[in-house]
Amino acid sequence: xxxxxxxxxxxxxxxxxxxxxxxxxxxxxxxxxxxxxxxxxxxxxxxxxxxxxxxxxxxxxxxxxxxxxxxxxxxxxxxxxxxxxxxxxxxxxxxxxxxxxxxxxxxxxxxxxxxxxxxxxxxxxxxxxxxxxxxxxxxxxxxxxxxxxxxxxxxxxxxxxxxxxxxxxxxxxxxxxxxxxxxxxxxxxxxxxxxxxxxxxxxxxxxxxxxxxxxxxxxxxxxxxxxxxxxxxxxxxxxxxxxxxxxxxxxxxxxxxxxxxxxxxxxxxxxxxxxxxxxxxxxxxx
Length: 286
Fold this sequence. Notes:
With 286 residues, this protein is α+β, with helices and mostly antiparallel strands. It is 33% helix and 25% strand. The chain has helices at 28-41, 43-46, 54-71, 102-107, 139-142, 147-150, 162-173, 248-260, 263-269, 275-285; strands spanning 13-15, 47-49, 76-79, 82-87, 90-95, 113-120, 123-130, 179-188, 213-223, 229-240. Strands 1-8-9-10-6-7-2 form a seven-stranded antiparallel β-sheet. The longest helix is centred in the first third of the chain and has 18 residues, at 54-71. It comes from Ahrensia marina.
């Protein structure tokens, strides 16, 4: 279980790009292996680009690769035209290939998904991304859409709403080189990393809630040097709900977030018919 400060807080907070940003971890090798499989088998589902993003992609690669090589020299090592990644007792080589999209090369180095948001006259647009571990969405459906359209299924984030305006202003006001982070969570009946479509129904009929899996996302936003593009990173972790017992303070945090959900949010998360039972289950864990 990844113990994160304010692990279930959905707000946005400033962050230093330190050893916690895009950090390697035990088990990262499995993420990189699954990314490789998905890029071979489902490329058009996990990578997309509207075109004209080459400069922003190169800025992402320079930022990410320099950070990894400098901050984690035991895991990332430059070897000629490759970057060697040492993970979980094994290693893989990521070739720096000028014919390959730079964002794709950067994405192969880390467990996190990487997305570029670009400022347009209509708003911030999802212009390029490699997203192998989505939570009920996929790049094929979202590429080219502005932020309000990307968030359309999320209660309270449609165009013109207060939350959408706040996020738009935050994107606009983010200073070049600055990074902010946010956290998100959901519950699922499976522990798959790759979840491109929503699960059917809710968990009201599930007898044993201990079989649920907690899916957390640690997201960061960094304004790139050009000033018109933002790197959005999404780090996913999935654990059995029972793993919360090792972090009692997280049980109370999740329970508080659960009870604060309104009806639309409960429907969106598939929790309307199970909230009271889940609340009791979490209380018994705490």
